[in-house]
Write the structure tokens for this entry.
Amino acid sequence: MEYGTIEREIHIDAPPDVVYEVITTPEHIAQWWGFDAEFPAVPDGQGRMTRPARDGRGQLVVPISVVEADAPRRFVFRWVHPEDQPATPENSFLVTFELEPAGGGTLLRLTEAGFREVGWEAATLEAYYRDHSVGWDQHLPSLAAYVARVARA
Amino acid sequence: MSATIDDELWAALGDPTRRRLLDLLLADGHGTATSLSDRMPVTRQAVAKHLVVLERAELVVARKEGREVRYVVNDAQFARAVRQLATVGAAWDARLRRIKKIAESIQALRSMD
């Protein structure tokens, strides 16, 4: 077990260009991550993601910095660095999405690295940012209508 | 638990030699610097130093036995470290499931056109 890295793989019955679009565009990010994303999906694109704070008071603001944007193959970014500092291996997590055509669909690989370098406190922070499962369960029934709207657009 | 101790815990787990030591202690139940160095490509002195780091992070507990110090894994602290990372992994599992669902729904609608 590598304690500092998360690695996941999932097969998706949709081609890489569709998956890439879902991963990188704000409208979709709001649905799968729950953040209002504002960042250009281009190399060195700087931005932020926001959502209402869990305690109902104010906004949670999370900086994001795009490292690689190679549609529809790779999307790499850093996040959770302090807002007034550039993202580095010492102050942020590195998230890598790799998309590979597989059986008419896509094999999507995710790694998130940086827990060791950033330290325990930041790992706790990432846990704090994690999606609230109850909230998402309530959210899913509206997904079909949302997807229909996107597909028409 | 204070932030300082948390940092120490994470730093302790960050080193591959120390993770290997933890693996051996988990498998064997206990060990000394001598017994552990027999099974690793590092000196007894290096193992002893790593064990001190693990002890400071409360990942192992030391007991003096004659002239040797015997180490066992502190299960509570170790479980806490593993649980913390598992939580983050579970969050990504949920996100990936939603990415899959959205992408497949879009694809299904596109292929109907």
About this structure: Residues 1-5 of chain B have pLDDT under 50 and may be disordered. The longest strand of chain B covers residues 60-65. The radius of gyration of chain B is 21 Å. Chain B touches chain A through 35 residues (CB under 8 Å).
